[in-house]
Amino acid sequence: MRTWPAIAAAVAAAVSASAQEPGRLDERAHQDREIVYFLRDPDTHAFDLYHDYTQTKEGMDRYLNVVRPGSTASNPSARLLDTGEVLKPEILKGEAITAAKLDLGEPVRPDSEVVLIRFPPVARGASVRLRISETYAEPARYKVENGELVWDRSFGRPRNAVVLPAGWMLTASSIPATVSETDDGRIRLDFVNPRPDEIAVLIKAKRRAR
Fold first, then answer.
1. How big is the CA angle at 146 (ends 143 and 150), to the nearest 5 degrees?
2. What percentage of the chain reaches a pLDDT higher than 90?
3. pTM above 0.85, yes or no
């Protein structure tokens, strides 16, 4: 038989769990933890990506994606998931970043590059959700060496997925991943990063025999 102190403790625990539930459910709308890369033929050094972004800070009206040194960005697109509205991203470099008074969190260099996406300011108690797509080229980190596809990139998000080009099969991955096949026959790797820092992912692949 349970004593009254034990019953009281159980009730308190249930109340506490119930109080935490709304906060947990609120986070279900946040989609800023995952990014998916679609690799083009490695001879192009290019890949497409998309990720969702949620902003809840009152008055915030822009999203900045700082391009890594050694990379070039192209074909950015963005859409408000709440309304379906198509936004018009801008690619700014060097002095244009300074002129726009953008805070990159780092010094602006002549070769600095950023993708800027403006959206209506976030109202109090509301949120804005965006889906962002871009194309990147990284000759130093995505290439062919000795007939093998080589992808060498660090991931900072909790969930990252890489889809190999059509006709390529996985031969090595420096970080454990869930490997699957897409509906169109491409190999997909899903990585989970539980750490507060980045994971360095090296992927190698070979062309499939025809």
1. 30
2. 67
3. no
